[in-house]
User: Which sequence fits this backbone?
């Protein structure tokens, strides 16, 4: 598993303050470098009862990150578009969440304050900004997308 690095498969459960499971994410093993559109990354979201919510699919793009967020029926809800330079060492990065017709409806952002010698600490902050009225399942899928983006672009091991 360790030799696969950020491309490794994983499962992630989220819990509320009462220790009740509120979501379950699964990410299958994929090839880390994929130039021709095969083996693109994805993550699937489920309810605590393992009912399928939807999938976040990486779509092939020449230079910029491009993801499609699809509901349980495979219908595209929103898309995620990034800049051409998503690397760990840039301190501030942002990916736009856009509707199927191209209107901006939110953003996923990352802040990296840099390495702190005094605390021997290297950490990043991620955020998801979306409208309050957005569909709950779409919000859960965008949270899954945030974890997927972290694994793809910012994880080192």
Assistant:
């Amino acid at each position: 598993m360790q030799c696969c690095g950020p491309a490794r498969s994983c499962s992630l459960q989220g819990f509320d303050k009462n220790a009740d499971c509120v979501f379950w994410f699964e990410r299958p093993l994929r090839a880390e470098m994929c130039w021709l559109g095969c083996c693109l990354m994805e993550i699937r979201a489920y309810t605590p009862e393992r009912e399928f919510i939807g999938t976040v699919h990486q779509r092939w793009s020449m230079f910029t990150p491009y993801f499609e967020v699809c509901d349980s029926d495979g219908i595209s809800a929103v898309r995620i578009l990034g800049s051409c330079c998503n690397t760990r060492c840039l301190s501030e990065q942002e990916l736009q969440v856009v509707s199927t017709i191209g209107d901006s409806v939110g953003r996923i952002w990352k802040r990296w304050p840099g390495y702190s010698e005094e605390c021997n600490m290297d950490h990043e902050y991620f955020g998801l900004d979306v409208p309050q009225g957005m569909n709950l399942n779409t919000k859960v899928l965008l949270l899954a997308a945030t974890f997927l983006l972290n694994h793809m672009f910012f994880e080192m091991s």
Observations:
- Residues 45 and 140 are 7 Å apart (CA to CA).
